[in-house]
Amino acid sequence: MKKIILSALTAMFMLTSCAQKQETVQEDNSPKIGSELFQEFQLPAPNKTGGKPLMEAINERQTMRSFSDENLTAQQLSDLLWVTYGFNRENRRTVPTSRNKQEMDVYVALKSGIYLWDSEKNMLNLTVEGDYRKETGAQPFVGTAAVEMIFVCDKTKLDAPDEQKATEATYANAGFMSQNVYLYCASQGLATVVRGMVPKDELSKIMKLRGDQMIVLAQTVGYPK
Ligand SMILES: Cc1cc2nc3c(=O)[nH]c(=O)nc-3n(C[C@H](O)[C@H](O)[C@H](O)COP(=O)(O)O)c2cc1C
Question: What is the pTM of this model?
């Protein structure tokens, strides 16, 4: 009798946890993007729920340098970009910025080109056509993942008393963005590495950046190999 009650309880527990899982796992039917060139791409609204519990994501946060080049879905890109630097309140973002200057722009280098993310419209806008993922770094693994993110400071928004203060603030701000990417990747089973080693002068030319824009960090994101 005891055995029957125990098995019934176990079955009930399994059914409940399955039902709970189904509630939290949202299906992603969006297309994989990156290989096809586009002038602009409207990303789906970011999914702001779900994922691993924070403590688990922090426990699993790590740098990985081995990637498959499988493209991310439009939904994954949208979620990744929102986590990195999206709005989570009126005019305020998922990351803090010194004196709330919000001076950063996020570019993504995909197989088809480099795109500037418009964080207000959640759109990707083509900046340069062509595969420049490799050109965002100097290490052998760079360019093997589907996505290379480039965090670029718009110095005109900084209004800092001197260049050193501006640089300090913007590097701190980029650090928050990077950590959000790390946690998102840990939560989603993706691999990532933040990179200070970026050929900034050459890449700035490729990206046609203005003199008052400065590349701060790059971050590789993709499926682990
Ligand atoms: C500001 C900064 C710059 C970094 N630059 C690079 C880089 O250019 N290339 C690289 O492979 N790793 C880079 N890393 C990753 C570190 O090597 C990595 O975080 C460190 O080895 C610890 O590993 P963990 O992130 O798994 O804890 C950088 C990390 C930080 C915080």
Answer: 0.90
